[in-house]
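FIELD: query
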Amino acid sequence: MNGLLDYVPGNSVLHSLNPLSKLALSLVLCTSCFISDSHFFIAGIIVLDFLMSAAAGVPGRSARIVRSLSKLCCILFIVQIFFVREGTALLSLPLNIFITDKGILFSLLFVMRLIAATMPLALMLSVTRTSDISNVLTRSLGIPYKYTFALTTAMRFIPLFAEEAAGIMEAQTARGVEFDTKNFFKKTALILPLCVPLLISSVRRIEGLAISAELRGFSLRGRKSGYKRYRFGASDAAAFILGVLVAAGAVII
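FIELD: result
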């Protein structure tokens, strides 16, 4: 499994947590990033994400997420420093453009929040089966199954569509399409030839999934239809305490 959102089997403490505990902890970590304005606190959350991924046996997954977001973070950082005009000017450029100390701090906080808020959700999906997420949302929170099914199906199809898009790009590159061009506008124009076959294959896949779901009694699925039970243990209590401490730290700091 090479996707960033694929489930990775394991026997770690994070794998054994109740899916609801994993979901709640990841949401607390993400929310805390936007509550606190401290660079050191958000850096601590990023370090905590790396430690949890190492404990779960997927340390490379977090590193890949940071590497995947690096280009986007660089672009956002450069754009943000020119829009924040408060603070002391550190560098003046033509056309009344200048870079301030607050602009640099805000841009750094912006990209750190992006990384820190993305990693917990990706880690949660790495240690939790999508079927468990669907079952616990329906059984414990009372969310209608059709909504949880749509959510988990979207998460399940993201890596499939990424692989299919990569295959289409390779096939079109073999036919002479220059997907490796450095020209931004030319690369943008190549999106349409990529989207059309991807859309056609997606419609076929979704139609097959809809027929399969109806044959399995999708419309009859309810809150008590799931056979699996999820219990809360000592590790879930520890995750709850960790979430409370992180949320309290975000408010205080």
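FIELD: remark
The longest helix spans residues 145-174.
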